Amino acid sequence: MRSAGAPGLQSLALRLFRDDRFLTRRLKFIYSSDWFNTLFNQSCQPLYGNCKKLQKHSGSETQVYLLPLTANKIFWEELKIVLQDLRFAFRMFVKQPAFTFIAILTLALGIGATSAIFSVVYGVLLRPLSLPDPDKVVNLWEARFESSQGITFQGSVSAPNYFDWREQNEVFTGLSAYQFTNLSLQTAEQPERIRGAMVSSEFFDVLGVQPLKGRIFLQGEDQQGKNHVAILSYQLWQRNFAADPDIVNKEIILGGETHTIIGVMPATFGFPSRFTEIWIPLIIPPDLAANRGYHYLLTIARLKDGVMLEQAQDHLKAIARGIEEKYPNEQTGRSILVIQAQEQLVQNIRPALLMLLGAVGLVLLIACTNVANLLLARATARTREIAIRTALGASRFRLIAQFLTESVLLSLMGGALGLLLAYWGVDVLLNLATNFLPRVNEVSLDWRVIVFTLGISIVTGILFGLAPALQISKPNIQSFLKEGGSSGHSPHRNWLRSTFVVSEIALSLMLLVGAGLLIKSFSYLLEIDSGMKPDNVLTMGIALPQAKYSTQQTAAAFHRQILERLAALPTVNSVGIINMLPIQQTGNNGSFEIEGKPPYPVGQEPIAEKRSIIGDYFKALGIAVAEGRTFTSQDQEKSTPVVMVNKTFVKKFMDSDSVVGKRINVGDNVDWRVIVGVVEDIRQNGITREPMPEIYVPINQSGFPINSISLVVQTTTNPTALTSAIRHEIQAIDPMQPIHNVKTMEEVISDSVAGNRLNMTLLTIFAGLAIILAVIGIYSVMSYTVTQSTKEIGIRLALGADTLNVLKLVLGQGFVLTLIGIAIGIAGAYALTGLMSGLLFGVKATDPVVFIAVSVILIIVALAACLVPARRAIKVDPIIALRYE
Questions:
Q1: Residue 545 near residue 579, CB atoms below 8 Å
Q2: Contact yes or no for 608/664 (Cβ under 8 A)
Q3: What is the rounded distance in angstroms from the CA atom of residue 761 to the CA atom of residue 114?
């Protein structure tokens, strides 16, 4: 401020020196006379002994900056003010326990649900893999492009192609191949099935990990004769070997062969799957090492420093073109895809998790809106307090600070309770999703989630506290004094409350529409005909050791014995064996030829799923034979090669409906096989996927041992009761042979839609919570409106208005707010539900039935919430109402 005269400036300066705001504000004076030094010494220093004066000369003027307190003293003064506000807020909450309880519980539900979902999202999607430089680890896939349909198929790699990739690579520090496997581990009690991985010797170097104990595989240990070594997972070491510190160099019987334990991996390591319990060397037999048509290897690699993903992709495409030119019959139309390992793990689950995070965010917004409404209603009772504080000189900034302190404190208490709810909620989520959610072992309520909860609590407190604070910090003192201290009726506050209610209804409708779409989608899933009859069918897996069952004859002898033994059990109707169980396991696929038809262009050969079966497999699953016959005991290794196909195969590739007796070449060691039967379609690769062309061959004619099999046992009673008897019969044939993955076929089908079920359940819960909060918000606003309008209602009744008109008046106000909220909610839902279309089956994201049904439900619920205040309104006594203050 410029000096206009010493007395005026002196008076202003003295007032500023005595203002509390001077404690935390740097004041700037511009003067051109020496009297200010005297003023400073006489007025400022006595008030604030450590007040500092900084001068800056500029021409004829001097700028003086007054720094009233040291930084340390400012901090303690501010802390005193904050503590004072907190004590006051806490006393206010104690005086109103009902309000405090409802507000904290509302916030706890919103914040707790958000924290629980965030912990899952962070652990699954955002947390880097527990590997050095995890963004450099990538998966490599063979891809086949069909130009006529524009579809890229992503799949495993053949051994010769893998060797070519590794030799021609210029962008990776290393490549490694691996396969999943099931192994039997001999224990003191009984054999145990464990899940493992067969990996090439470079596997751990590519991942960049070192063992907790021992060493990793050496070059050459993936060669026959040198491969009897194994590395344990931390969990297997703890569970089966009691964390033996001297475990390295001890021997175990694994898959019927002696293996030496050379290492134990850290607890955080779980690759290629968190279920992997043991790693053994990958042996590529000579016949597969030269077979480019047999794709069975999975591949990982590590990018070199400075190499981007796009550069690696371009380099791999060039390699693929070179292989195609060299081997046009096998490789035409094939390329290579590179995908980051973390992206590969989470790409299928990301849409569902982001949808749930968005849904729980809407729930939190509804909770904030509800609490803001409660605070606004509570502020009505504090009108006198606010007016008096304002009249005594409290600034609006000071009032807003006090109200925000109260709202943030309230939110922090809700956040603390919400963190406890999140701890319980995460356990529930993980138990429900443990079988299909990747990286589930990395989900926890760690410090990141706690910081997130703290941050969201503070933001939430400001969010729901700011609007009420801005409204109630502007009291009309003259109106207050004229009304003799009554709270009065504020149109602005009523407008704000109505806005909150409209927002709650709109957000609730968006959640309800999403839940309705998922419910309808899931109902369609349950109605899908799988093509099987799963009633009273028991399934289980068996992994025959390669060392013991190395030929087709030895494996076939086991298959034959188990079929005979199980068929003789009481209550067993039929027994079958398949190499890959429907729905639960993905099958092999490959090209084929049809006798009498011209060959397809190279690279455009037709593809069909391939399964190997034996016994009464079709009968056990209730799969009808549409034409011809099934396989019999006469279909042996040296008899006429036969094959069965499904109806989709016939419709897509055959020229006539009657195909029995025609021959096809399925690309195995047999030139031509005779079609002996056609079976009905089943949903082999998942309940949501349409039936694909399928080929079935007898296990006895496969030409190589089928060691990984699934039993299918159809019974007349509860199938699970036969589990012990079946295990006994299997171990009577081979005492060291365990069984695994014992489930009824109904459980297999149910598990295939477990992710859809969980999405539907969680979103329905969130939507239910949202509608409860919306009902509370509507009720509170209408109840407040009736209370504020008591005098008006009394006058209406005194002048002859009947109760029906009063009822219509109250319900009409609620109905209007509901309609506005529904209109906004429908627009928002229409815009957002398209993002969840990938999660729906058989339902459009804009399904009008769901939108209409949800709107009607919300109208009914909203009117029900208005009914209680409306009934109270029609019971108003006019005499009492006219006296109402």
A1: no
A2: no
A3: 16
What is the tens place of the pLDDT at every residue in 457-472? 999 988 888 877 777 7
218 vs 263: CA distance, rounded Å: 12
3-class state of residue 60 by DSSP: coil
Give, to the nearest 10 degrees, the angle between helix 396-433 and helix 350-380. Answer: 140
Q: At what angle do helices 447-472 and 491-527 cross, to 10 degrees?
A: 140
Which residues, in sequence order, are bridge partners of residue 625?
679
Of 106, 126, 113, the closest CA to residue 361 belongs to 113
List the one residue out of 588, 616, 445, 579 whose CA is nearest residue 156.
588
Listing DSSP states for 815-874 in one string gives: HHHHHHHHHHHHHHHHHHGGGGGGG-SS--TT-HHHHHHHHHHHHHHHHHHHHHHHHHHH
User: What are the structure tokens assigned to 736, written together?
Assistant: 């060291």
Q: Is the pLDDT of residue 524 over 80?
A: yes
Average pLDDT over residues 139-149: 71
Q: Give the separation between CA 415 and CA 104, rounded to whole angstroms.
A: 8
Structure tokens at 734: 């081979």
- Measured from the Cβ of residue 243, the count of other Cβ atoms closer than 10 Å reads 10
Please give the helix or strand (H or E) that residue 712 lies within, else none: strand 708-715
First vs last C-alpha separation in the chain: 49
Beta bridge partners of 279: 197, 231
CA atoms of 121 and 422, how far apart (whole Å):
13
Check if the beta carbon of residue 201 is closer than 8 Å to that of residue 185. no
Q: What is the pLDDT of residues 744-780, one digit of tens each?
A: 999 999 888 888 888 898 888 888 888 888 888 787 7
Copy the structure tokens of residue 874: 């029609």
- Report the amino acid identity of residue 85: D
Residue 137 has pLDDT above 90, yes or no: yes
Q: What is the pLDDT of residue 3?
A: 38
3-state secondary structure of 154: strand
C-beta separation of 482 from 773 below 8 A: no
pLDDT tens, residue by residue, 160-178: 999 999 999 999 999 999 9
